[in-house]
Amino acid sequence: MLLQGTAPAPAIDWLLLAMLLLGGLALFLFGLEHMSQSLRSAAGERLKDVLKRLTEHRFSGLLTGFFVTALTQSSSVTTVMLVGFVGAGLMKLSQTVAVIMGSNVGTTMTAQIIAFKVSHYALLLVAIGYLSSLAIRRREPKLWFSALAGLGLIFYGMELMSTAMQPLRSHQPFIEMMLSLEHPLAGLAVGFLFTALVQSSSATIALLIALGSQGLVSLPAAIAIAFGAEVGTCITALLAGLGNSTEARRVAVVHILFNLLTVLASLPFIGALSRLAMLISPLPVGPSPLDALATVLPRQIANSLTFFNLFWALALLPATGVFAAMARRIIREPAQAPDPDAPQFLTAQLLATPPAALEMVRRELSRQAQQVVAMLVDSRELVLNADNEGLASLRARDRQADRLHDAIVEYLGRISLSTLSESDSHDFLALMRCGNALWHISNLVGDQLVHLGSERIRDGLLLDEPVRETIGHVHASVLEACRLAQRALADGDLQAARDCRAMKHSISAMMADARLGEAARLRGSSAEAMNVYGFEMGVLECYKRTYYYAARIAKTLLHVDGDGEDDD
After folding, report:
1. Are 401 and 368 within 8 A, CB to CB?
2. Structural domain of residue 305, as residue ranges?
3. What is the pTM of this model?
4. Can you tell me the distance from the alpha carbon of 558 to that of 498, in angstroms, rounded to the nearest whole number?
5. Which of 37, 107, 247, 249 is deepest in the core (most CB within 10 A)?
6. pLDDT tens digits for range 506-552
7. 538: Cβ–Cβ under 8 A, 6 or more apart, which residues?
8. Distances in Å between the alpha carbon of 566 and those of 61, 426, 433?
């Protein structure tokens, strides 16, 4: 029951109220985003590793979702990351269901934090956090103190919103409006609309707790509004899934299904949930009823949300497969197969977490390396024997690889706009170098070798068996080196990278023997033989340069200093 004061209603300065309320909400959202960004940057590598190592075990997924969301202070961030990982093929849909359930529990930690009465120390937290982040040079402690400053802004925003609400304690029209929200559907609609508008369920809960701190909302009405926020926060996941892969859209559907079904199933039991929260956090003895309610109501709201999400997460944990199956029935496989030439791993949702985004770049580079190695496999036969049509097909594959390279570079450019740790910066530069090396190999095969093949056809060159054997031997060795570099890039196999670099001397010796052997054969030969020699040396030089770039990839992955010129 909403309690009302009996003192005469003072005149309300609506402009001041609006400034305090909107300013407090803005500070709260800014502090939340600042804290979330700092925590993600501080723990980004750990978040990536945790999500990468997820198994099908439901309980581990539940705990992962809880801890990741409690750390980032946003279930939307967790869900958007899941959409990105699934869209990139890093996780399966079935793995995400338990994580989503856990994230719903983790997001209630925001309510638990802001329900604490520490607003008087908010500016102290801002001062300590911000000044310490300025004074400390080490990146990780700097980020943790920056997160502390964000937490202080959250509490200060809450204090401003609570102060703004205070005059409304005796404003009868507002009290009557809040009383109308005790109808579950009315509260549900308000919570949904507000959360969908501000794209933050935490903002809705913060406003509820600010209302509760002044005794302006009853617990049943607050629970109904919070239920609406649970549904409204799915809009973020839905937007993240739009334009993404089929599996990624299914993640958004799982989030919507879980939140919607649990909220609808709980609406008839709001009264029971209220009584449980009151039992856990009863009214204190002593203060006036209104002050007592204002003191304990924020904690009751937070406890009711935590209990609600924890109960449903544990109750429905065995049904993760059911939710995945429902999502697959709702989002069918597209009739048209996806474009095989389009990037498969470069999802925009992961840009907010640079370590995860860089992992996606590595996977896309591994895919590009597959394309380039396949081109190299076919290059010998096409250059030595194919007609112009066959060479044109090889050139077209080079153009496809170029388009993928351009997409990777553009994605890396977007990653560079984020604040990168020292480790992320190192990985960024390494991936950029590997991408450039693959681009050079693709151009050597699809441009320069094709050009040599076209000259062979134009001049009508007839290649004897020794020439074919020499080119074949060098091609085989270079192909092996490129496959080793590809394995090092795809699997992190450093031994493969070492083996690739170790081939330098054998390939150099092979090239020297070819030059000497052909030079000996050319004494007194015809002009046509000279043309064949020029063709052969041109092909061998392309393969030599191809090895040089493969060795550069290996050298980059081994973190060897230098620019790679010793591999030439």
Report:
1. yes
2. 14-330
3. 0.67
4. 8
5. 107
6. 888 888 877 776 655 655 456 667 777 788 888 889 999 999 999 99
7. 448, 452
8. 47, 21, 16
Residue with tokens 């999500």: 51
Are the CB atoms for 201 and 107 separated by under 8 Å? yes
Q: What is the DSSP string of 304-342?
A: HHHHHHHHHHHHHGGGHHHHHHHHHHHSPPPSSPPPTTS
Give dist(CA 197, CA 236) in Å, integer.
Answer: 10
The tens digit of pLDDT for each residue in 54-84 reads: 555 778 788 888 877 777 666 666 777 777 7
Exposure class string for 256-273: b at 16+ Cβ within 10 A, else e: bbbbeebbeebeeebeeb
Region of 497 (left: φ > 0; alpha: ψ -120 to 50; beta: rest) is alpha
Tell me how many domains the chain contains. 2
**Look-up: residue for tokens 């109220």?**
17
How far apart, in whole angstroms, are the C-alpha atoms of residue 211 and residue 222? 9
Task: Decide if 337 is inside a domain.
Answer: no
Answer yes or no: are the C-beta atoms of 206 and 108 closer than 8 Å: no
Which ranges constitute the DSSP H helices of 119-245?
Answer: 122-135, 139-165, 172-180, 184-198, 201-212, 219-232, 234-241
Compute CA distances 256 → 104, 144, 482, 485, whole Å.
Answer: 12, 33, 46, 43
272, 297, 330 — which closes off a domain? Answer: 330
Indicate whether 323 and 216 sit together in one domain: yes
Cα–Cα distance, 208 to 191 (Å, whole number): 10
